[in-house]
Request: fold
Amino acid sequence: MWEYEKKLQYPVRVSGPDPAMAKTIITQYGGPDGELAASLRYLTQRFSMPINEAKGTLTDIGTEELAHMEIVGSLFWQLIQGATTEQMKKAGLDPHYVDHGCNPFYVDGTGNPWVAAYIQTKGDIIADLYEDMAAEQKARITYEHLIQLADDPGVRDVLKFLREREVVHFQRFGETLRIAQEWKDSKKAY
Amino acid sequence: MIMNNEGYIEKGKEENLLGKEDMQKALLYQIMKVEFGVTETTLYLDTHPFDQRALMHHNMLSNQLKGLIQQYEYQYGPLTSSGSAYRCWKYINSPWPWEIKW
Ligand SMILES: [Fe+2]
Reply:
């Protein structure tokens, strides 16, 4: 089970409204390489993992990605606070506002709804861990693209933190893959 | 919020320099920092379960975190729904994470 902790994993601080940036950032909430996708992918891959290192890594990284989803949601929400109708229209966020108000929603930057087809589990440790490592790299480059677009030092700071976490997750999944391969080899060697 | 390079409030100055809300934020920030360390050692231990140095580090941070959370909950209310509350259910009234101005 999960228990909520009433805090963000990393503080979110923006210097003012920037709906255009909010519109690009939303993809890390509900886009193909976003935090919802990451969390749900890892958590559902756990069930038939044959080794405990993989169950642990997927549980704990899947949980951390949920915390990242909350950070991205906070970033989106804060970037819209105080924005004028004109700014919203100019940024193209007016349709989002009509459907969801100031809340983030599970869509990518162009408004496509989140779909389960973004993610996969094959129930095979090697196939799933390769998918996870690729997913972390896609999340990393998405954050790098966002950092290129961001001017606000507060926004850049949060995005850099999240980018760094993807690098760490990639590392941990790589180690899990190595352990998985050793485990497979040891089974063949009896 | 007044921070030195380590991110910790300078001892003894907090009462004079910080308002009530700032002190709450400072303690919460300290919890966030220590808990981030715990997240890091947890992920590391998941793939290095016999690493003695990492285990020691993890246990040290985990104890520190427990102490900080106890102190926070005593003063400001539960950080998690299973946390202790005194006098009234402060869980709903303490600042919600996305609304905090850092
Ligand atoms: Fe990740």
Summary: Helices of chain B lie at 14-17, 20-47, 52-76.
